[in-house]
Amino acid sequence: MTGDVATALRELAAVEGRTPEELALQYAAGALTIPTEPIDARDWGIFDGPPDLSARAGEYLREEIGR
Q1: Closest CA relative to residue 25, chosen from 37, 13, 15, 35
Q2: Which of 14, 26, 37, 59 could form a disulfide with 31 if both were Cys (CB 3.0 to 4.6 A apart)?
Q3: Whole-prediction pTM
Q4: Is the pLDDT of residue 15 over 90?
Q5: At 39, phi and psi to the nearest 5?
């Protein structure tokens, strides 16, 4: 692999603590997709949980433990 794909695989490997070779094999097998264009992540939800989690964390934990 060369170019942008190779760079992306090396950076992803560093983040995930894996080898670039592992990811290259997954990419070659079609199990890993590397976008060719920038992804607009502004619409992505980073956290999919209740909006008041930080204010009511203790209450949510007590509810889960009580189940």
Answers
A1: 13
A2: 26
A3: 0.55
A4: yes
A5: -100, 130
Q: What is the C-alpha to C-alpha distance for residues 21 and 62, in angstroms, rounded to an integer?
A: 45
CA atoms within 13 A on the CB side of 42: 2
Q: Which amino acid, one-letter code, is at 7? A: T
pLDDT digits (tens, 9 = 90+) for 28-37: 999 999 887 8
Q: How many domains does the chain have?
A: 1
Structure tokens at 62: 């007590």
Neighbours of 26 (CB within 10 A): 14
Instruction: Judge contact between 19 and 11, C-beta under 8 A.
Output: no
User: What average pLDDT does the structure give for the chain?
Assistant: 84
